[in-house]
Specification:
- With 142 residues, the protein is mainly beta.
- It has 1 helix and 8 strands, in the order ββββαββββ.
- The protein has one helix at residues 63-68, and strands at residues 8-14, 19-22, 28-41, 47-59, 74-88, 91-107, 114-116, 122-124.
- The strands form 2 sheets. Strands 1-3-4-6-5 form a 5-stranded mixed beta barrel.
- Strand 7 and strand 8 form a beta hairpin.
Length: 142
Amino acid sequence: MPFSLNKVQLIGTLGRDSETSFTTSNVSVTKFSVATEHSRKDKDGNWQNETTWHNIVAFGLSDFYKDGLKKGKKFYIEGRITHNTYEKDGVKRYYTEIIAEFNGIIPLDRRGEVSQESSGGTTFTQDAPEKTESSEADDLPF
């Protein structure tokens, strides 16, 4: 078989809270959408922002991720692109999804940082716990 590669890497903002369902074999299926932006100059020299929406599907996510995938949060998503079809009212319809890899979802919002949601609301994330004991790494000269 010839060499081929189907790999997608996205950094974007979640457009809605994730929704989780389960297959008949009790595997969780989590779906959410991510918006990415691209800026370009138009023919008049003005900057135009273009937003692209991506439908993401992840299998077997832990509760930590399912609970953290909220609207307005920034994430890095790595996976593969798939194209699917279905028929509705006798019309064949096409859609594209990104199947996220098992370790391919990484939160990018720092703890304690404020995220601006597209609806204008603000979401506060929990502050990182304070350090209570010094570690050996603190004593290193570099």
